[in-house]
Design brief:
Keywords: Disulfide bond. Involved in an early step of the mitochondrial complex IV assembly process. It comes from Oryzias sinensis. This is Cytochrome c oxidase assembly factor 5. The chain has a domain at 16-62. The chain is built from five helices and no strands. It has helices at residues 16-28, 30-33, 39-45, 49-63, 67-70.
Length: 75
């Protein structure tokens, strides 16, 4: 479920909602906050895997030639 904020500037890029949730998940995870690791290191350990997969699927749907006719998936 994407998070939307009233005072935040609108992001019209593709997959913006999933991107925002993925970024928030990584930056608020204990791996980054308490252990002081970089978000890229936490990704390698498997944190926020579901959002990473959703973001990948959204970006991949943009390159899928079949989706040109059907439109992007609603993320």
């Amino acid at each position: 479920m994407p998070k939307y904020y009233e005072d935040k500037e609108e992001d019209y890029r593709a997959c913006a909602g999933v991107r925002e949730d993925f970024k928030a998940c990584l930056l608020q995870h204990d791996c980054v906050v308490k252990e002081g690791k970089k978000p890229s290191e936490c990704l390698k350990e498997g944190h926020c895997r579901a959002l990473q997969t959703s973001f990948f699927e959204c970006k991949r749907s943009m390159l899928d030639t079949r989706s040109r006719f059907r439109g992007r998936k609603g993320y």
